[in-house]
Write a structure and sequence with these properties.
115 residues; alpha+beta; four-stranded antiparallel beta sheet; 3 helices; 4 strands
Length: 115
């Protein structure tokens, strides 16, 4: 999906709207969400792993994710810790990207957060 409009970060250097992927992962009885923002310009933004705590209606999860994305755009491409802290019904982890990472390195960090 496209990130919310409104700031320079919403547009990639080539003029295209920046996008992000939101993936739902189900492992047994638990569900997690991964938010990965497109980084064609090597922008340094962590992947977010979101785990709802307890029973959270889908509409609440959806609204919280939208709020997180809007906060990220308002902060110019950085996760807004104040917004993340307001999502009290979710555990949120940041998974950093490192320049020296191979895809396997990054995938390994992601898998360790899932399990």
């Amino acid at each position: 999906m496209r990130v919310p409009p409104g700031k320079r970060f919403s547009v990639c250097p080539n003029g295209a709207r920046r996008t992000c992927a939101i993936v739902q992962l189900t492992n047994g009885n638990s569900t997690s969400y991964v938010i990965e923002v497109a980084r064609p310009d090597d922008w340094s933004i962590s992947t977010l792993m979101i785990r709802p705590t307890g029973h959270v209606p889908f509409s609440t999860k959806e609204a919280d994710i939208q709020l997180i994305l809007e906060g990220m755009v308002e902060k110019g491409g950085h996760w807004d810790q104040n917004v993340l802290d307001r999502c009290r019904n979710m555990d949120i982890d940041k998974i950093r990207h490192y320049e020296s990472d191979s895809p396997r390195d990054w995938a390994g960090r992601l898998i360790r957060k899932i399990t």
